[in-house]
Amino acid sequence: MERVQITINRAKDGTYSAYCNDHPALFGSGATPQIAKRELIETLRLVKSDGKDVAYIYPSWLDGEYELVTNWDVQTMLEYYTGIITPTALGNLAGIHPKQIWAYAHGTSHPRKTQIAKIQDAIHNLGHELINTSL
């Protein structure tokens, strides 16, 4: 199965976009990341239904099984999940001062690659723990 990398980010007007990293012209947009991703999926469905002969862009992976793998820019992800994952909680999980997480979320500072890796690892570890939790 092909893993297709997509990116979700937020525009200055507050809307979200979701696009294929290898073909940015294949995109969706909307008021939430979920709507933007649904619009992207609809775009992919329409491109596939139009076929290779008609479509302007037709990636070969559309012919097989594929899954969309979501990438976020750091600020968009932190802004979107701010009510769920607080700067204090994420800071504790990632080993980054909460004020620094807040600065990343509000765009007053941009994380280095090492900080991005710490944030990503913290989120993945939390997700893994939650998936393996029963009540």
Could you characterize what this model shows?
This protein has 135 residues and is α+β, with helices and mostly antiparallel strands. It folds into two domains: 2-72, TTHA1013/TTHA0281-like (2-Layer Sandwich), CATH 3.30.2390; 74-131. The chain contains five helices and four strands, in the order E-E-E-H-E-H-H-H-H. A four-stranded mixed sheet has the order 3-2-1-4. Strand 2 and strand 3 (27-30) form a beta hairpin. The longest helix is centred in the last third of the chain and has 19 residues, at 113-131.
List keywords for this structure.
135 residues, 2 domains, four-stranded mixed β-sheet, alpha+beta, 5 helices, 4 strands, TTHA1013/TTHA0281-like
**What are the secondary-structure elements, in order, as H or E?**
EEEHEHHHH
CATH architecture of the largest domain: 2-Layer Sandwich
CATH topology of the largest domain: TTHA1013/TTHA0281-like
Cα end-to-end separation: 33 Å
Quaternary structure: single chain
The level 1 CATH classification of the largest domain is Alpha Beta
Shape: elongated
pLDDT < 50 stretches:
none
Provide the number of structural domains.
2
Q: In DSSP terms, counting alpha (H) and pi (I) runs of 4 or more, how many helices?
A: 5
| Percent of residues in β-strands | 15-25%
In round numbers, the mean pLDDT is 94
**Fraction of residues in helix:** 40-55%
Please give the largest β-sheet: 4 strands, mixed
State the strand order across the main sheet: 3-2-1-4
Provide the gyration radius in Å: 17 Å
Please identify the structural class as seen in this structure.
Answer: alpha+beta
